[in-house]
TrEMBL record:
This is Cysteine desulfurase. Its EC number is 2.8.1.7. Belongs to the class-V pyridoxal-phosphate-dependent aminotransferase family. Csd subfamily. It comes from the Bacteria. Catalyzes the removal of elemental sulfur and selenium atoms from L-cysteine, L-cystine, L-selenocysteine, and L-selenocystine to produce L-alanine. It comes from Paramicrobacterium humi. Keywords: Pyridoxal phosphate, Transferase.
Length: 430
C-alpha cells in the first residue's frame, strides 16, 4: 500500500495501476485509457478482496440475531460506518447508508416533506415548509440535486429558485446574495460541477444560507473522491456522496447529517430494523442513523466502501488532489490547443478539478465518444444529467474526460492525440 508520505509520481502511479485489473485489459485491440471515473471509478483488488472476504466468511444479517456470525457481521458493518464517517470528518452516528447519493438526497427531501405533513412532532417543526417558503438550488446542478427539490416544492407549495451561472458555468455569487433571503429555508448545491469541474464557493454559500436561517445540502459526489473533505469544517447541514465514484462497489452511498438534525427528521422508509416499539396503531423509531435504514442493509458493499476509504487514505487525498490537478491542467491546456474544441467551464485551472467537458465543433458528442472508444479511450458523452446547465452553455451534449489517481500524463497525451483526429475524420476540420 502506498503511504500518505509518498507523492504520486510516475513510479507511485504505476504501482497503483497494478491493483486495477481492468487497466491491463485491451479494448478494441488497444491498451485501455480509462477517463470516465467521474461517472464510475474502477475498483482495486483490496476493495474487491474485502467484499469477497465478507461474503465468504461473515455472511449474516446485521443488528439481528444473537449468534456469533450475526455479531461479527454487525461489528464489521458498524466499523465500516466509523471508517467512512471519519473519512469525511463526521461522527459515525452522523452517517446513514443509502444505495447512492441520489437516494440520499431523496431521503432528505421526502423526510422534510413528511415533517411538513405533520410527522415527527415538535422536533421536526424546524423542517416544515409553508407556501411561499423558498428552496434554492443552482443552474449547475446534476438532476439528482434538482428534481427532488422540484418535487418537494410541488408537494409543499414552496418556491424553487436557482442561482444562475455565468458564461463559463461558474456560479454568480452576486446573484446568490440577492436570491438567498428571509424566505429561504434550504440551499442545495454541488461542491464540484460534474460538467464544468468548477469548485463551488462553499464557505460563502454556507454563510449566506445560515445567515438566512436556511439548511445547506451539499452534493459532494465529485469532491469526496478527489480531495480532502471535512463536512464539519465546511459547516454544511447535510451532504451526500457515492461509493462507486471512489473505488467502492455500486449500490452503496452515504448521507451525512448533523446529529441533531438527523434525530429530528422523521423517517423516509419504514419497516424492520429502524424501530424500538411497534403496536397495531403506531411505532416508535430508533435514533439516527438506524431510523433511516429500514430492512436488510448493503452489508458487503458498506465493508468494501470502508476498504476504498482506507485505500484512498493510504495514498493520501492531498497527493491525489495534487496529482489530479496536474492532469487537469494538462487536459485544459491541451484541449484549448486543438482547433474546434470548446471547453466548458472556467479557463483558470486553479478553479477546476481533473475533469473536462467539451464540445467538438461539427461533431456530435456521441460520435466523438465512439471515435475515442475505437482507440481504447473511455470517456462520457451526453448531457451528464445536467440539462439546464448544458442549455445555458448553448450545447445539448458534451464529451467529458475525467481523471483519477490511476491515470497518468501518458493517458492524457494519448487522449489529446486521438481527439485531434476527430474533426478531420468526420470531415469537420478546416
Amino acid at each position: 500500500m502506498i503511504t500518505s508520505t509518498v507523492p504520486l509520481d510516475d513510479t507511485a502511479v504505476r504501482r497503483i495501476r497494478t491493483d486495477f485489473a481492468e487497466l491491463a485489459k485491451p479494448v478494441n485491440g488497444r491498451p485501455l485509457v480509462y477517463l470516465d471515473s467521474g461517472a464510475t471509478s474502477l475498483k482495486p483488488a483490496p476493495v474487491l478482496d474485502a467484499e469477497r472476504a465478507f461474503a465468504e466468511t461473515y455472511t449474516a444479517a446485521v443488528h439481528r440475531g444473537a449468534h456469533t456470525l450475526a455479531a461479527e457481521a454487525t461489528e464489521l458493518f458498524e466499523q465500516a460506518r466509523e471508517t467512512v464517517a471519519a473519512f469525511v470528518g463526521a461522527a459515525s452516528d452522523e452517517l446513514v447508508w443509502t444505495s447512492n447519493a441520489t437516494e440520499a438526497i431523496n431521503l432528505v427531501a421526502y423526510a422534510i416533506g413528511n415533517a411538513t405533513a405533520g410527522r415527527g412532532g415538535e422536533a421536526a417543526a424546524r423542517f416544515r415548509l409553508s407556501p411561499g417558503d423558498e428552496i434554492v438550488v443552482t443552474e449547475a446542478e446534476h438532476h439528482a440535486n434538482l428534481i427532488p427539490w422540484q418535487e418537494l416544492a410541488a408537494r409543499t407549495g414552496a418556491v424553487l429558485r436557482a442561482i444562475p451561472v455565468d458564461d463559463e458555468g461558474v456560479l454568480r455569487l452576486d446573484e446568490a446574495t440577492a436570491i438567498i433571503g428571509e424566505r429561504t429555508r434550504l440551499v442545495a448545491f454541488a461542491h464540484v460541477s460534474n460538467v464544468t469541474a468548477a469548485i463551488a464557493p462553499v464557505a460563502e454559500l454556507v454563510d449566506l444560507a445560515h445567515a438566512a436561517g436556511a439548511l445547506v445540502v451539499l452534493d459532494a459526489c465529485q469532491s469526496v473522491p478527489h480531495m480532502p473533505v471535512d463536512f464539519h469544517a465546511l459547516d454544511v447541514d447535510f451532504a451526500v456522496f457515492s461509493g462507486h465514484k471512489m473505488l467502492a462497489p455500486t449500490g452503496i452511498g452515504a448521507l451525512y447529517g448533523r446529529r441533531e438534525l438527523l434525530n429530528a427528521l422523521p423517517p423516509f422508509l419504514t419497516g424492520g430494523s429502524m424501530i424500538t416499539t411497534v403496536t397495531l396503531e403506531r411505532a416508535e423509531y430508533l435514533p439516527a442513523p438506524q431510523r433511516f435504514e429500514a430492512g436488510t442493509q448493503r452489508i458487503s458493499q458498506a465493508i468494501a466502501f470502508a476498504a476504498a476509504c482506507d485505500y484512498l487514505s493510504g495514498i493520501g487525498l492531498d497527493h491525489i488532489a495534487e496529482h489530479e490537478h496536474a492532469l487537469g491542467r494538462r487536459l485544459l491546456e491541451g484541449l484549448t490547443q486543438i482547433d474546434g474544441i470548446r471547453v466548458l467551464g472556467p479557463r483558470d485551472a486553479d478553479q477546476r478539478t481533473g475533469l473536462a467537458s467539451f464540445d467538438v465543433d461539427g461533431v456530435h458528442a456521441h460520435d466523438a465518444g465512439q471515435f475515442l472508444d475505437d482507440k481504447g479511450i473511455a470517456v462520457r458523452v451526453g448531457h451528464h444529467c445536467a440539462q439546464p446547465l448544458h442549455r445555458h452553455l448553448g450545447v445539448t451534449a458534451s464529451t467529458r474526460a475525467s481523471s483519477y489517481l490511476y491515470n497518468t500524463l501518458d493517458d492524457v497525451e494519448l487522449f489529446l492525440e486521438a481527439l485531434a483526429d476527430v474533426r478531420p475524420f468526420f470531415g469537420a476540420g478546416s
